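User: Let's play a game. I give you a shape written as tokens, and you guess the letters that built it. Ready? Here's round one.
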């Protein structure tokens, strides 16, 4: 127990942060918040003219201020700070400071010596030495499903659920889908900036040959396709991509330099559409169609599905869908990819895990079910009773609701426009179902703020482009793999093992083990 004794005897002074970021009580909230952002701290200690700590203003307060709709340019720090904050002395032990933090729910405690502010200890400071503490003493509860919990920092993109806005790097993702090609956005995610014309040309040259499936894996595809005639293409992708990662021999991400990991990421993203379309065709007794290096991503994808080039408006519609689904914050499959990468495992394992997470109906598996709902409803007049019954029975309407969006999903708004542009027989019914479902959900599930998510109009767009239902989620995977692999690169570049805890709720242990 030498390590634990060492922790117990460490004092707050040895781990506190200095200098403390402070604010004056008369400053505006905007000024204090700006300093917190700039210096990347989670709180400011409010000090009076004599250097005494008289309050604390934290990130949580800023959230409350925003929720209250206060004017941050006018409101003063003293109005919103927590006055007379608890403090600890610098010679107090880490153990007792930790107790005050965990028991009282504080995230930051000012360190005060003889009335003067000398430092600040935060949960992060304590976590730095926490590997020496038993995990149970660090436990703090988070909401079920990790809703709203920030688990990492990323510069790839973000979703602002209340505003109905999401972005890739610093650009509005919908605007990118309207103005750019998929390859441009892929480049943006991997390289951090949009390509110049010359960079774009080089990137296209780099990725086009990577679409080919290695010969040894190609030879196995017919056998995988015959394993089970009902197997969804995504299951077959999971299997064959895993074979490919084995064949190419991706080493643990911890052991490879960043440029090698980047090459593996590009190889993966380029080959996924080829694998998917080949498997889909083989399962139906059709010959796979080779990738065409002269065609851009979406056009090539569609010709590999159909065996012929598709009209330009359909190619562009699918490309816009693909761009709009490349990345979306810490969704379940992206999080899965990051957790696997955090163990130092290879990029192939991260992608296989992410494919599995995406396949679930609560995540990527919804669009074909949304279309099945449209079929069952059949005509606009049947929408109201059908939807009302389904929600009353406790069923979930596929293509509605979202963990983060509590307003219109911007992807669904964009795809509605794309679907309208394409036209098609299902559009009128889709509009009717959308309007009715949102109204019925507001009435029967008040306060849950349920609107159409990306999957609803994605289904309509893909259907209008002639894509078979079995290929809806695989098409989603063809773009999301770009997001997953970008996150793998980011996680690997600045890694710490992601390893949370759970609360045990089973029969109290230890119980005597019954004799055999
Ligand atoms: N239809 C009916 N009720 C719904 C729906 C829905 N589509 N979505 C949520 N609700 C209700 C729930 O029944 C629950 O009601 P309750 O409070 O009476 O229990 C409440 O709204 C909150 O639901 P949660 O499951 O807690 O919400 P969560 O954030 O966990 O789920 C999810 C989000 C999974 C997307 C959910 O809205 C859903 O199941 N939608 C249908 C499936 C779907 O469209 N998935 C695709 C998502 S988009 C994507 O992943 C790319």
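Assistant: Ready! My guess for every position:
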């Amino acid at each position: 127990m030498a390590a634990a004794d060492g922790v117990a005897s460490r004092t707050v002074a040895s781990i506190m942060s200095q200098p403390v970021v402070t604010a004056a009580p008369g400053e505006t909230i905007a000024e204090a918040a700006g300093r917190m952002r700039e210096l990347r701290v989670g709180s400011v200690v409010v000090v009076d003219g004599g250097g005494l700590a008289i309050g604390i203003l934290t990130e949580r307060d800023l959230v409350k201020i925003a929720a209250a709709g206060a004017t941050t340019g006018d409101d003063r720090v003293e109005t919103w700070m927590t006055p007379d904050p608890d403090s600890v002395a610098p010679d107090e032990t880490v153990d007792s400071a930790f107790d005050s933090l965990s028991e009282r729910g504080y995230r930051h405690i000012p360190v005060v010596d003889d009335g003067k502010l000398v430092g600040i200890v935060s949960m992060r400071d304590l976590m730095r030495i926490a590997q020496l503490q038993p995990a149970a003493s660090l436990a703090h509860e988070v909401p079920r499903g990790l809703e709203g919990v920030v688990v990492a920092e990323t510069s790839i993109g973000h979703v602002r659920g209340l505003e109905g806005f999401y972005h890739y790097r610093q650009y509005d993702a919908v605007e990118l889908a309207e103005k750019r090609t998929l390859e441009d956005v892929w480049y943006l995610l991997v390289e951090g900036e949009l390509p110049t014309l010359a960079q774009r040309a080089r990137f296209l040259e780099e990725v086009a040959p990577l679409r080919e499936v290695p010969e040894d894996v190609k030879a196995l595809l017919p056998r995988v396709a015959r394993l089970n005639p009902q197997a969804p293409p995504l299951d077959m992708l999971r299997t064959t991509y895993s074979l490919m990662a084995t064949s190419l021999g991706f080493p643990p991400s911890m052991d490879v330099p960043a440029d090698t990991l980047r090459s593996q990421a590009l190889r993966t993203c380029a080959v996924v559409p080829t694998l998917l379309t080949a498997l889909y065709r083989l399962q139906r007794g059709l010959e796979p169609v080779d990738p065409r290096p002269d065609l851009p991503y979406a056009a090539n994808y569609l010709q590999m599905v159909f065996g012929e080039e598709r009209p330009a408006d359909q190619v562009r519609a699918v490309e816009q869908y693909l761009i709009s689904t490349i990345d979306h914050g810490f969704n379940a499959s992206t999080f899965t990819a990051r957790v696997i990468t955090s163990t130092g495992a290879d990029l192939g394992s991260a992608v296989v895990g992410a494919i599995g997470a995406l396949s679930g109906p609560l995540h990527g598996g919804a669009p074909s079910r949304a279309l099945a709902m449209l079929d069952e409803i059949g005509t606009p007049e049947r929408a109201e009773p059908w939807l009302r019954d389904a929600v009353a029975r406790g069923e979930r309407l596929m293509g509605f609701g979202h963990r983060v969006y509590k307003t219109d999903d911007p992807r669904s708004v964009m795809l509605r426009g794309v679907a309208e542009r394409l036209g098609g027989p299902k559009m009128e019914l889709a509009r009717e179902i959308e309007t009715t479902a949102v109204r019925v959900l507001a009435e029967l599930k008040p306060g849950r703020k349920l609107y159409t998510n990306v999957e609803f109009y994605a289904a309509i767009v893909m259907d209008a482009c002639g894509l078979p239902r079995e290929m809806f989620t695989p098409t989603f995977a063809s773009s999301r793999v770009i997001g997953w692999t970008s996150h793998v690169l980011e996680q690997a570049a600045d890694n710490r093992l992601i390893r949370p805890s759970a609360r045990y709720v089973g029969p109290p242990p230890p119980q005597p083990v019954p004799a055999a």
